[in-house]
Design goal:
Blueprint: E1 9-10, E2 13-14, E3 28-29, H1 44-68, H2 75-88, H3 99-113, H4 115-118, H5 124-130, H6 133-136, H7 145-156, H8 158-173, H9 179-191, H10 197-214, H11 232-240, E4 247-250, E5 253-256, H12 260-283, H13 295-299, H14 309-318, H15 320-343, H16 358-403, E6 414-416, E7 432-434, E8 437-438, H17 439-443, H18 453-475, H19 479-503, H20 508-522, H21 527-556, H22 561-589, H23 600-612, H24 622-643, E9 649-652, E10 655-658, H25 659-664, H26 669-677, H27 680-711, H28 718-753
Antiparallel strand pairs: 1-8, 2-3, 4-5, 6-7, 9-10
Length: 754
C-alpha cells in the first residue's frame, strides 16, 4: 500500500521591520531547511568502517547470489554494526558518532555490498561462460581480473549519476515512502536516541505552521528543528541521558527500546551459530541435504531439506507472504510440473539437468511469469507517470492562460486577519502577512549540500562514454549500440525507482529482460550483445534504486545528499575490485555452474537471450507458458484496481477481508518464479524461518494482551510498539544467520584456494 499525502504549505518565520509606530513585524515565509550542521556529515572513519563491513556483505552476497540468486542491501544491519563499532570506541573519540555519519556509513556499505548484482557477477558473467562456441560468434566470454574490473567500472557510474535528478521528484515532491530507506532511518533514530522521523513529521508540520501564524521564530541559526532534529538545548539534554536509559520519546508514545548491547549479542550469537553450521556442512556434506520426504523424493525429484540457518534468515528478512508464494511456486514447479514433464517424456534427462531434465523445462515457465508480471507492473507505473505528467502540463498551461507566466511573478502575500485582535506583542489590530511556499521548497536542503548540476550531467555524460568504450574493447559491440542500451536503461531505471519507492521491490530482473527483448531487434543473433544490454539495464536500475533508498534515509535524518553521493561512489568503485577478485576465487575453487553453485539467474538470462533470438522452446511447454503468463499479467492489474477502489474491506461471498491485508498477501509473480527456478531445499528453509518468526510474534503479542487485560492496563499503541520491537530483533537475528554462513564460507573458500 502506498500512502498519498496531500500537498500542504509550510512556514518558517523571519522578522522584517516596517515604518509603523509600533514597528509591526511582517512575517514572511521562507522555504529552505538546513542540513544538521551540528554533527559531522562526511568522515573518513565512517567511510572506512562502511567499506570493511560492506566487504563482508559483498562476500556473503556473492556466495548466496551464485547459489540461489539472492542479494540483500543490508542497510539496517550496516547501521547497527557501525553504531556498535563506534559505541565501543566512544571513550577515545573526540567527536561523537552521530546519525548523519551513520547514514554515510550505511550508504558506503550498501554500495560495496550490492556490486555482485549490479555488476552482473551472479547473472550476466556466468551466463556468458555458459554460451556455446557457436553462440558467442568469437566474442570474449571469460574475463580475467583486469577485464572484470573494467566491466564493473563500465556499469558502476551512470545509474548513480542518473539517480540524483530523480531525488527531488520522488523524495521531495511526491514523498514516496521507499520502505527500506524509511526503516533504516527509523533504526538509526532509535540507535542515536532521536524521535522516529516518520512519526514526528506531521506534528512538526503543525507546530511550524502555528509558529508562523503566531510570529514566533524557531530558527536559532545553527540548525533547524525538523524531522526529529532538536535544538541545541534539546541535544544537550539528550546527550546527558545517553548512558542512563534506552528510551526514545516519540510524540506522546514512549518506545522502550532494547539496549544496543542486547542487539549486538543477538547478532553475535546468530552469526556464530550460522558459521558453525557452515563448517559442519563443509566437513559433513550429508547434513546439507536431509531426505525428510523420503529417499526417492530426495534423489530423483530433488525434494530434501537443507537446514541452513542463513536461508532461514533470508526468509525472516523476506517476510511470510513472500515466502509462502515461493513455496507455492516450488510445489507447482517441482511437485506438479516437473513430474509431469518427466513422466510424459517432455524432459527425459535427470530432473536437475538444465538442458534435458525437467529443471530446464520448468525454468521457461518461471521466466514467463517474471516477464509477464514485470512488463505489466512497469507498464502500470509508466502509465501512472505519464498521466501525472500530462496533468501537470494541463495545470501549468491553464495557469499561464489565466494569469500569465507565473514564473516571472513574485509570490503574493496573504494577509491573515488576527482573529483574537491582538498581536504577539500585545498590540491590537495588527495584521500579519505570510508568504505561502510549496512544501517541496521547505523540504529541499541548502544548495551547498546538494550535488551540483554540472557534476550530475557531466558525470552522466562521462560515465556513458566510459561504458561505451569499455564494452567496445571487451566484447567488440559497436559503441552506438551501447549508447542505445544506456539510453534505454535510463527510463527503465525511472520505472524501477518508482516501483521501489512504492512497493520496496525494484524489478531489476524484469527491466533487464525488457532490454533483451528490444535488443533482439537491434542486434539479431548476437547473444553476447543481448546479455550485455540486459546487464546494462539491470545495473542502471540497481544502482539508482540503491542510492534512492539511501537518499530517503538521509532526507529523513537531515543528512547531506552530497556526502551520500560521494559515499556511494567510493563504495561502488572499491567494490568493483573486491568483487572481481572474489569472483575469480570462486571460479578457481568451484565449478560454476556446478552442484555447489548452480547460478540459476545465469540460466534465466541465457534462456531469455536464446528465446528472443529465435531458439526453439522445449516440447509441450508453450501452453503452460501462455497460461501462467496470462495469469500473472492479470494479477498486478487486479491488485491496482483493488488498491484504488478506496474500500477498506473487500467481500468474497460470505467472507470479508481488509483491503490492506488482502494486498499484503496478494500473489507475487516474482516470488512464485523464484520458487520454481530454485530447488525446493532453498525455499523450505526460507518458509521455516519466516513462519517461525510469525508464530513467535503472535504468541508474544497474545501473552502481552492477556497480561494487560489481567492488570487492567492495555494501551492501544502497546501492541504496535511490541510488534516493531520483535520485528527489529528478528531482523538482527536473521542478519547474523545470513552473515555467519556467508563469512565462514568465504574463509573456507580462501583455505581451499591457498
Amino acid at each position: 500500500m502506498s500512502l498519498l499525502i496531500q500537498p500542504r504549505h509550510a512556514f518558517e518565520v523571519k522578522s522584517v521591520a516596517t515604518d509603523d509606530d509600533h514597528e509591526q513585524r511582517r512575517q514572511i515565509v521562507s522555504g529552505r531547511h538546513m542540513v544538521d550542521v551540528s554533527q559531522p556529515q562526511f568522515t573518513w572513519r565512517a567511510i572506512i568502517v562502511g567499506l570493511l563491513f560492506g566487504t563482508i556483505l559483498c562476500f556473503s552476497n556473492l556466495w548466496f547470489g551464485l547459489q540461489s540468486g539472492w542479494i540483500s542491501m543490508m542497510s539496517l544491519q550496516s547501521s547497527l554494526v557501525g553504531f556498535a563499532v563506534f559505541k565501543a570506541l566512544e571513550h577515545v573519540l573526540d567527536v561523537p558518532f552521530g546519525p548523519a555519519e551513520n547514514v554515510v556509513l550505511q550508504s558506503t556499505a550498501v554500495a560495496t555490498a550490492t556490486m555482485p548484482l549490479a555488476g552482473g557477477f551472479v547473472g550476466i558473467l556466468p551466463a556468458l561462460k555458459l554460451l556455446e562456441e557457436s553462440e558467442s560468434n568469437g566474442a570474449r566470454t571469460v574475463l580475467n581480473f583486469g577485464q572484470l574490473c573494467a566491466w564493473g567500472l563500465a556499469l558502476t557510474f551512470f545509474g548513480v549519476f542518473f539517480a540524483i535528478p530523480l531525488r527531488r521528484q520522488t523524495i521531495i515532491k511526491e514523498k514516496l515512502r521507499f520502505p527500506s530507506g524509511t526503516a533504516t532511518a527509523q533504526m538509526i533514530s532509535v540507535l542515536h536516541k532521536r524521535p522516529d522521523p516518520t512519526l514526528v513529521d506531521e506534528q512538526l508540520q503543525a507546530e511550524t505552521t502555528a509558529t508562523a501564524l503566531n510570529g514566533v521564530t524557531r530558527d536559532h541559526g545553527t540548525f533547524v528543528r525538523r524531522r526529529g532534529i532538536a535544538t541545541a538545548a534539546d541535544n544537550a539534554s539528550d546527550n546527558s541521558q545517553e548512558d542512563t536509559d534506552d528510551e526514545v520519546q516519540t510524540d506522546n508514545i514512549s518506545v522502550d527500546d532494547v539496549k544496543w548491547v542486547t542487539k549486538l549479542l543477538i547478532l553475535f550469537v546468530s552469526f556464530t551459530m550460522s558459521g558453525v553450521y557452515a563448517l559442519l556442512a563443509h566437513f559433513f556434506p550429508i547434513i546439507a541435504a536431509l531426505p525428510v520426504f523420503g529417499r526417492r523424493a530426495s534423489t530423483v525429484w530433488a525434494w530434501n531439506l537443507m537446514p541452513s540457518l542463513s536461508y532461514a534468515g533470508q526468509g525472516i528478512i523476506m517476510g511470510l507472504p513472500t515466502c509462502i508464494w515461493m513455496l507455492v511456486g516450488s510445489v507447482v514447479g517441482w511437485g506438479i510440473l516437473s513430474p509431469l514433464a518427466k513422466n510424459e517424456g517432455w524432459a527425459p534427462g535427470p530432473v536437475t539437468d538444465w538442458k534435458t531434465g525437467s529443471r530446464g523445462w520448468i525454468l521457461w515457465i518461471s521466466l514467463a511469469v517474471m516477464i509477464a508480471e514485470s512488463i505489466v507492473s512497469l507498464g502500470l507505473v509508466g502509465t501512472k507517470e505519464l498521466l501525472l505528467a500530462l496533468g501537470r502540463l494541463r495545470v501549468f498551461y491553464g495557469k499561464r492562460k489565466t494569469s500569465g507566466s507565473l514564473l516571472s511573478q513574485p509570490p503574493e502575500d496573504v494577509t491573515t486577519p488576527n482573529t483574537l485582535g491582538q498581536s504577539v506583542d500585545g498590540d491590537t489590530n495588527v495584521p500579519k502577512t505570510v508568504r505561502l511556499v510549496a512544501e517541496e521548497d521547505l523540504d529541499e536542503v541548502d544548495p551547498r549540500f546538494l550535488v551540483p548540476a554540472w557534476v550530475t550531467w557531466g558525470g552522466l555524460f562521462a560515465s556513458t562514454l566510459l561504458c561505451m568504450g569499455i564494452v567496445k574493447a571487451l566484447f567488440d559491440i559497436p559503441m552506438y549500440d551501447t549508447l542505445i542500451a544506456v539510453v534505454l536503461a535510463l527510463p527503465l531505471a525511472v520505472l524501477g525507482v518508482r516501483a521501489l519507492g512504492e512497493t520496496d521491490l525494484n524489478p531489476v530482473s524484469g527491466i533487464g529482460k525488457v532490454s533483451q527483448v528490444v535488443f533482439a531487434g537491434i542486434m539479431p543473433g548476437n547473444l553476447v550483445g543481448n546479455l550485455v544490454a540486459g546487464g546494462i539495464a539491470e545495473a542502471g536500475a540497481q544502482q539508482a534504486g540503491d542510492l534512492m533508498q539511501d537518499l530517503k534515509t538521509g532526507h529523513l535524518l537531515n543528512a547531506s545528499p552530497r556526502a551520500q553521493f560521494v559515499a556511494q561512489m567510493i563504495g561502488s568503485v572499491f567494490s568493483v575490485f573486491v568483487t572481481a577478485g572474489a569472483y575469480l576465487l570462486y571460479n578457481k575453487v568451484y565449478p560454476i555452474p556446478g552442484p555447489q553453485f548452480p547460478v540459476p539467474t545465469a540460466q534465466v538470462w541465457l534462456d531469455m537471450a536464446r528465446l528472443v533470438n529465435g531458439h526453439p522452446l522445449p516440447p509441450h511447454v508453450w501452453p503452460f507458458i501462455a497460461a501462467f503468463s496470462i495469469l500473472f499479467a492479470l494479477l498486478p492489474a487486479v491488485a491496482v484496481i483493488v488498491k484504488n477502489s478506496g474500500k477498506e474491506y473487500v467481500a468474497f461471498g460470505p467472507w470479508t477481508v481488509r483491503t490492506s491485508t488482502l494486498l499484503r498477501w496478494w500473489p507475487s509473480g516474482i516470488a512464485f518464479a523464484i520458487g520454481i527456478y530454485n530447488t525446493p531445499n532453498f525455499t523450505l528453509m526460507r518458509v521455516i524461518g519466516a513462519l517461525s518468526t510469525a508464530v513467535v510474534t503472535e504468541v508474544v503479542v497474545s501473552r502481552h494482551k492477556h497480561s494487560g487485560i489481567r492488570s487492567g492496563v492495555l494501551r492501544g499503541h502497546d501492541e504496535s510498539i511490541l510488534r516493531r520491537k520483535i520485528a527489529m530483533l528478528a531482523i538482527i537475528l536473521a542478519s547474523g544467520f545470513v552473515l555467519g554462513e556467508g563469512t565462514f564460507s568465504f574463509f573456507i573458500l580462501l583455505s581451499q584456494a591457498f
